[in-house]
């Protein structure tokens, strides 16, 4: 439940708080809610009606359902006051008082906000009439008990999940540009209220602001899923029809089909130049935008190469691999190679300093715009294969890795394949990470560990193709 504006945490109302102080707090909240909407009362004429809110000269007619909801809130306040009048300081009434008070205050906040929207839309002289026939009634008991912050939850595993997941090297940013990952259940939106307000600051039925960078910042920081918006997305200025599928997989997309405003590069030729290498979030895929190569250049020497070929993996399950997910910093090359083999792959990535998602789509492939902190939008036991390359690396803490691996396990069907491609980490940390993969109890179909030689640091590459077991 969202906290009403100006209301502190429920912790300000402990069980032992004197009854008179509770009443004072209640009175202050009710007074604040009334004062926040008092500019309307001189113009509101409440009439008993079952019709939708309408506007006439000098009068605003509100629906009968809204009057009932206001009366219901008043009744709730009366019941609470009666309970407190006869309650001792040790009573559970004071303990539950805060949750119910929070709900009532939130409802009053919503009421004042709805009146504000109604007033603004009708005083502006436009035809955009907002309705105030909104449900302010009680949520179910589970919603009340959850409250407005993670401390309202009782599950230790949920507390563990929602806690920040620092990178393995504390204080060092990963390729996403953050020092820790915030797993998302929507709670962290409250900690970024100004950015959420900015994201939702638009004119309804008009063009949306060009602000996807704010949206991505919110997603990476754990505010995900984002609110829906009632505005229209902009079209690139000189938009042209995409290439047909038989030629789009390996052709450079047209510059005119990409909105370049929030990227350092302003055309496609810049993406494939050496000048972009080294940009955070982009360096791991500095060659991704070069679509001229029709495959992976994989060395055949198993003692130095950590990679497996696609055909080598598909031969493990002839004809069984049909749909899957690639979770990588990518422009869809893996998905393109799989498409040529009649396998449909969704490519999950963010726009890390470059138009990854746009290029995936312009190639005729399926982009999935998703942060690492989000639960995968697939049902259980549905995908044939999950592939990841240059993503699950030694920057990742063990808690985060566990949640990611188990979500991949959830969406993989029984006997499905988990293909981990070129996981790398410090050599002395390799066993620690390999133990996490072993805890899945998957069957090892392909497994390879080789030294990582492109840096002076003591690192190793790990690649594996693992088969999900049958479980009863």
UniProtKB/TrEMBL annotation:
The keyword Transmembrane applies. Keywords: Membrane, Transmembrane, Transmembrane helix. The chain crosses the membrane at residues 12-35. It comes from the Eukaryota. Residues 144-154 have a biased composition (Polar residues). This is Methyltransferase type 11 domain-containing protein. Residues 131-143 have a biased composition (Acidic residues). The lineage of its organism: Eukaryota, Viridiplantae, Streptophyta, Embryophyta, Tracheophyta. The keyword Chaperone does not apply. InterPro entries: Prob_Methyltransferase, SAM-dependent_MTases_sf. Residues 122-154 are annotated as: Disordered.
């Amino acid at each position: 439940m969202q906290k009403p504006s100006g209301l502190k945490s429920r912790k300000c109302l402990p069980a032992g708080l004197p009854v008179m102080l509770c009443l004072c707090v209640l009175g202050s909240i009710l007074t604040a809610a009334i004062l926040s909407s008092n500019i309307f009362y001189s113009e509101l004429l409440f009439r008993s009606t079952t019709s939708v809110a309408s506007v006439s000269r000098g009068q605003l007619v509100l629906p009968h359902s809204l009057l009932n909801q206001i009366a219901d809130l008043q009744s709730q306040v009366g019941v609470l006051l009666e309970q407190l009048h006869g309650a001792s300081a040790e009573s559970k009434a004071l303990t539950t008082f805060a949750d119910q008070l929070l709900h009532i205050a939130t409802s009053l906040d919503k009421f004042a906000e709805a009146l504000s929207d109604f007033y603004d839309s009708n005083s502006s002289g436009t035809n955009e009439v907002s309705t105030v026939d909104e449900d302010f009634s009680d949520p179910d008991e589970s919603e009340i008990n959850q409250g407005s912050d993670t401390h309202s939850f009782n599950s230790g595993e949920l507390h563990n999940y929602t806690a920040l997941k620092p990178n393995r090297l504390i204080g060092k940013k990963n390729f996403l540009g953050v020092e820790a990952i915030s797993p998302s259940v929507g709670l962290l939106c409250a900690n970024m209220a100004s950015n959420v307000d900015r994201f939702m600051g638009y004119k309804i039925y008009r063009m949306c602001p060009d602000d996807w960078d704010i949206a991505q910042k919110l997603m990476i920081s754990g505010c995900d899923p984002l609110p829906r918006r009632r505005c229209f997305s902009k079209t690139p200025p000189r938009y042209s029809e995409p290439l047909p599928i038989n030629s789009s997989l390996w052709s450079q997309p047209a510059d005119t089909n990409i909105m370049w405003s929030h990227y350092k590069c302003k055309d496609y030729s810049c993406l494939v130049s050496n000048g972009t290498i080294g940009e955070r979030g982009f360096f791991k895929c500095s060659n991704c935008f070069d679509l001229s190569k029709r495959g992976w250049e994989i060395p055949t020497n198993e003692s130095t190469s950590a990679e497996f070929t696609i055909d080598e993996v598909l031969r493990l399950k002839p004809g069984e691999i049909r749909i899957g997910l690639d979770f990588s910093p990518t422009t869809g090359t893996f998905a393109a190679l799989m498409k040529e083999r009649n396998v449909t792959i969704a490519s999950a990535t963010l726009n890390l300093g470059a138009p990854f998602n746009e290029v995936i789509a312009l190639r005729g492939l399926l982009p999935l715009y998703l942060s690492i902190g989000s639960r995968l939008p697939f049902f259980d036991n549905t995908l044939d294969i999950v592939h990841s390359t240059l993503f699950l690396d030694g920057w990742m803490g063990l808690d985060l890795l566990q949640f990611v691996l188990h979500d991949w396990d959830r969406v993989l069907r029984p006997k499905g394949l988990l293909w981990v491609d070129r996981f790398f980490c410090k050599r002395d940390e390799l066993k620690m990470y390999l133990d996490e993969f072993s805890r899945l109890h998957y069957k090892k179909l392909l497994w390879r560990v080789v030294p990582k030689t492109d840096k002076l640091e003591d690192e190793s590459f790990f690649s594996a193709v693992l088969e999900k077991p049958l479980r009863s």
